[in-house]
Design goal:
Layout lengths: L5 E3 L10 H6 L4 H5 L3 E5 L10 H16 L6 E6 L5 H11 L8 E5 L15 E5 L10 H10 L1 H10 L8 E5 L5 H6 L3 E5 L16 H23 L1
Parallel strand pairs: 1-4, 2-3, 2-5, 3-4, 5-7
Antiparallel strand pairs: 6-7
Helix pairs in contact: 3-4, 3-8
The structure holds ligand AR6.
Ligand AR6 binds next to strand 3 and helix 5.
Length: 231
């Protein structure tokens, strides 16, 4: 089953026939469709400029800690490109750990189109949010708020007004949202990671002692939030 640690969406030209089937063969379509799955982007490593080596260590470390506590649920790290450095670092590091490949894997695709374009059903997706929990700003935050429509903004406001670095907030997505109807996403979990970009709020000025603590806390909050949904 080594080849299922990574596979690509249909949108990709590099898709090899059968890569997604490898996953389906580990269970029936029906049971896989009901498998609770969290898709998450690499928090803080793009606009927030967090070091990729350090981030990949933390992702693998926290995933290893959680993956067996989540029952049959799956965790999927997503990025847009086959050339994603964070995906390849995490794949390499996860392979050296005791992590079941059908419970944690990487996936190339747009996190807002995982089912419609990639054939991967994820009932929960994580957002690399800003502290105001506002749409726009670029990156995955802009993509998720755009794809979810105004329903997400309203639902988010009902849960929280703002977020501290390291924290996450679970937002149930109204069924009127296209992300719900088209992609089968029932919850969005906003996560605020540590920021190493001097032009953004809560700038940590290269303090990676604090930064690593906050990133660990962010993934812990995210996986706790996911656990609370599927419990
Ligand atoms: N699908 C999957 N992954 C994506 C997508 C997408 N549609 N878009 C980006 N990524 P970033 P941060 C990957 O910058 O560093 C925002 O403006 C991207 O390649 O979205 O935590 C917010 O408002 C990278 O691996 O988040 C905040 O102010 C990962 O998602 C700030 O950026 C995270 O990149 C947060 O910065």
């Amino acid at each position: 089953h080594n080849n299922i640690s990574s596979f690509s969406g249909n949108a990709s030209k590099e898709l090899k026939e059968g890569e997604n089937l490898a996953v389906c063969s580990s269970g029936s379509h029906a049971s896989l469709n009901n498998t609770p799955t969290l898709a998450f982007p690499s928090i803080s490593t793009s606009d927030f400029q967090f070091n990729l080596e350090k981030a990949s260590d933390i992702i693998v470390e926290v995933v290893e800690e959680y993956v067996n506590k989540l029952g049959s649920a799956r965790l999927v790290l997503v990025d847009m490109s086959h050339k994603s450095k964070i995906l390849s670092l995490v794949k390499t590091k996860a392979a050296q750990k005791n992590i079941e490949l059908n419970k944690f894997f990487t996936f190339v695709g747009d996190i807002t189109k995982l089912y419609s374009e990639g054939g991967l059903r994820c009932n929960v997706i994580a957002n690399a949010a800003n502290w105001r929990l506002k749409p726009g700003g670029g990156g995955v935050n802009a993509a998720i708020f755009n794809a979810a429509g105004p329903a997400l903004e309203v639902a988010t406001k009902e849960q929280a007004q703002s977020l501290h670095p390291g924290k996450a907030v679970v937002v149930p997505l109204p069924s009127t949202s296209p992300l719900f109807s088209r992609e089968g996403v029932t919850h969005v979990i906003h996560v605020l990671g540590p920021n190493m970009n001097q032009h953004r709020p809560n700038f940590l000025n290269n303090d990676y002692i604090k930064g690593c603590q906050i990133l660990r806390e962010a993934y812990n909050s995210l996986f706790e939030g996911f656990a609370s949904i599927i419990r």
